[in-house]
């Protein structure tokens, strides 16, 4: 895994946006896996800026969702479908036809999970999956003790994650208990995993994921098993990494043409 320490969230966003733009220049129909939450917003902002400035043509790119709440009514502003359409798909000038995600309103949720997992493969697989990380080390909504081989399925959120996400709702009670998430095994099938973590609140989870043992207790540690995983962290999120200086030196010595 490559660890890149950036000064702040904006720099992280710009770096990852450029990696996505470079991918789309190489492969215009790339399938881009996106995360929701606060962390990836600087990526989407920077990428939309590059698109508006004519730096990349994303008109053939496709966007897919990592996870979704179960039971929020269709069109609810905090359903991840609505969030991804609002924060990624529309700013990039794409239409809904460029977007795929699991159906959190399905009567048969398990069937919806399996259908989505299959659809990702049938679409050719995810080229680049952007990830955030929970304070408890989750990726997607694979909470601690998720199987490292798991596929897209329904999960129950921990109280910690519901409290972390309550800021998007009027009250904690409104945060759904259940979600659909790509499994860790599903996520690991993406060709390139890019995890962005910013802020001191993520420092413990980052240190455990990058420098700790691979463990279902820390789902993001599964990135250590992936042949092309990049972890981009700001100084605050990097503050508990023992190897921070080594990571800085390695990235500083990297030839520019290698990209992320
Ligand atoms: C969201 C997701 C989650 C978030 C994580 C961090 O699609 O998959 O894993 O990335 O909960 O959320 P923020 O970025 O809001 O701290």
Automatic annotation (TrEMBL):
The family database entries (SUPFAM superfamilies) matched by this protein are listed as:
NagB/RpiA/CoA transferase-like
Question: Where are the catalytic residues?
Answer: 67, 136, 138, 143
Instruction: Please name the GO terms that the record assigns under molecular function.
Output: glucosamine-6-phosphate deaminase activity; identical protein binding
| Reactions catalysed | alpha-D-glucosamine 6-phosphate + H2O = beta-D-fructose 6-phosphate + NH4(+)
State the protein's name. Answer: Glucosamine-6-phosphate deaminase
Q: List GO terms (cellular component aspect).
A: cytoplasm
Q: Which NCBIfam families match?
A: nagB (TIGR00502), PRK00443.1-4 (NF001684)
Give start and end of each Glucosamine/galactosamine-6-phosphate isomerase domain: 10-225
């Amino acid at each position: 895994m490559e660890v890149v320490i950036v000064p702040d969230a904006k720099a992280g966003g710009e770096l990852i946006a450029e990696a996505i733009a470079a991918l789309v220049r190489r492969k215009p129909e790339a399938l881009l896996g996106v995360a929701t939450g606060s962390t990836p917003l600087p990526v989407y902002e920077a990428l939309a800026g590059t698109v508006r400035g004519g730096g990349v043509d994303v008109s053939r790119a496709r966007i897919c969702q990592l996870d979704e709440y179960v039971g929020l009514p269709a069109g609810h502003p905090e359903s991840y479908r609505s969030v991804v359409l609002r924060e990624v798909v529309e700013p990039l000038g794409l239409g809904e036809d460029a977007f795929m995600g699991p159906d959190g309103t399905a009567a048969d949720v398990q069937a919806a999970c399996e259908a989505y997992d299959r659809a990702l493969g049938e679409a050719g697989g995810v080229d680049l999956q952007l990830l955030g990380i929970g304070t408890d080390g989750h990726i997607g909504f694979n909470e601690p003790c998720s199987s490292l081989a798991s596929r897209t399925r329904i999960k129950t959120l921990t109280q910690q994650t519901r409290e972390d996400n309550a800021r998007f709702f009027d009250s904690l009670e409104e945060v759904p208990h259940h979600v659909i998430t790509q499994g860790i095994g599903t996520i690991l099938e993406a060709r390139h995993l890019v995890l962005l973590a910013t802020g001191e609140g993520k420092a413990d989870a980052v240190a455990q994921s990058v420098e700790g043992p691979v463990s279902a207790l820390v789902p993001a540690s599964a990135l250590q098993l992936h042949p092309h995983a990049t972890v981009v962290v700001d100084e605050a999120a990097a503050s508990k990494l023992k190897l921070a200086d080594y990571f800085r030196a390695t990235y500083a010595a990297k030839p520019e043409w290698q990209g992320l």
